[in-house]
Amino acid sequence: MRAALEARTDRGRRALLGGALAAFAAAAIAVTPAPARADDTVVFAAASLKNALDAIAADFAAGGQGTIKASYAASSALAKQIDQGAPADIFISADVPWMDDVAKHDLLEPGTRVDLLGNSLALVAPASYAGTVTIAKGFDLVGLLGGGRLAMADVAAVPAGKYGKASLEALGVWDGVKDHLAQADNVRSALALVSRGEAPFGIVYATDAVADKGVKVVATFPADSHPPIIYPAAIVKGPRAVRPRPSSPIFARRRRPSASPNRASSS
């Protein structure tokens, strides 16, 4: 079952991301003079997209569609780098506020922002864990930790950490567990803490969980316990910007209502 879920999730994410990147590239070719185009496309992407985007980059290269150079980190770190002038063509964030931050600095090409993907939050344990967990109001998360720590991405800045904190607050268990955290720079680093057995449990995106055979999903957090997990994408202004027409139908076809993006975890 795990293998089937992993394959289905990977196919869905690759199809959506690949289609979006192809649309961005097509727009660039259509409206940018050839001498001004770089040989590669620099994508700043949330760490949780690494598996899917690496595969897409390989497909692009094999098909002669150009080179995708991806930089992965927490959305907060990437947004700050873009704000400070880091060269990027495309930004894919794991939450809306950090994309809003870049937009606030007038660094997004008009008409290119889309809600690309969605996700869900999972409680993970090492693959050897044999117990069961039910997530509900007031569940004994501290007891589950057994003196260990809960791995999470930075709850103050990293989207996965912020979503996790919001969910724990909604479930009434945050105050009890907040002093038992092992916080990481991004969600993949939090996942690695569990995979290596350094933390008994962790909160990550469901799509991250299926990408690491060293962990298992023991429960999924209720969708109504945290804000919707949305991955917005946009083209970045600047010397590298591909500058498509704001009204380009290529982007119109990719646009999704903010409230109902394609869910990466169920594609």
Automatic annotation (TrEMBL):
<feature type="binding site">
    <location>
        <position position="75"/>
    </location>
    <ligand>
        <name>molybdate</name>
    </ligand>
</feature>
<dbReference type="InterPro" id="IPR005950">
    <property type="entry name" value="ModA"/>
</dbReference>
<feature type="binding site">
    <location>
        <position position="187"/>
    </location>
    <ligand>
        <name>molybdate</name>
    </ligand>
</feature>
<feature type="binding site">
    <location>
        <position position="205"/>
    </location>
    <ligand>
        <name>molybdate</name>
    </ligand>
</feature>
<dbReference type="GO" id="GO:0030288">
    <property type="term" value="C:outer membrane-bounded periplasmic space"/>
</dbReference>
<dbReference type="GO" id="GO:0015689">
    <property type="term" value="P:molybdate ion transport"/>
</dbReference>
<keyword id="KW-0479">Metal-binding</keyword>
<dbReference type="GO" id="GO:0030973">
    <property type="term" value="F:molybdate ion binding"/>
</dbReference>
<dbReference type="Pfam" id="PF13531">
    <property type="entry name" value="SBP_bac_11"/>
</dbReference>
<feature type="compositionally biased region" description="Low complexity">
    <location>
        <begin position="258"/>
        <end position="267"/>
    </location>
</feature>
<keyword id="KW-0732">Signal</keyword>
<dbReference type="GO" id="GO:0046872">
    <property type="term" value="F:metal ion binding"/>
</dbReference>
<comment type="similarity">
    <text>Belongs to the bacterial solute-binding protein ModA family.</text>
</comment>
<protein>
    <submittedName>
        <fullName>Molybdate ABC transporter substrate-binding protein</fullName>
    </submittedName>
</protein>
<feature type="binding site">
    <location>
        <position position="48"/>
    </location>
    <ligand>
        <name>molybdate</name>
    </ligand>
</feature>
<feature type="signal peptide">
    <location>
        <begin position="1"/>
        <end position="38"/>
    </location>
</feature>
<dbReference type="InterPro" id="IPR006311">
    <property type="entry name" value="TAT_signal"/>
</dbReference>
<dbReference type="InterPro" id="IPR050682">
    <property type="entry name" value="ModA/WtpA"/>
</dbReference>
<feature type="binding site">
    <location>
        <position position="160"/>
    </location>
    <ligand>
        <name>molybdate</name>
    </ligand>
</feature>
<keyword id="KW-0500">Molybdenum</keyword>
<feature type="region of interest" description="Disordered">
    <location>
        <begin position="240"/>
        <end position="267"/>
    </location>
</feature>
<comment type="subunit">
    <text>The complex is composed of two ATP-binding proteins (ModC), two transmembrane proteins (ModB) and a solute-binding protein (ModA).</text>
</comment>
<dbReference type="GO" id="GO:1901359">
    <property type="term" value="F:tungstate binding"/>
</dbReference>
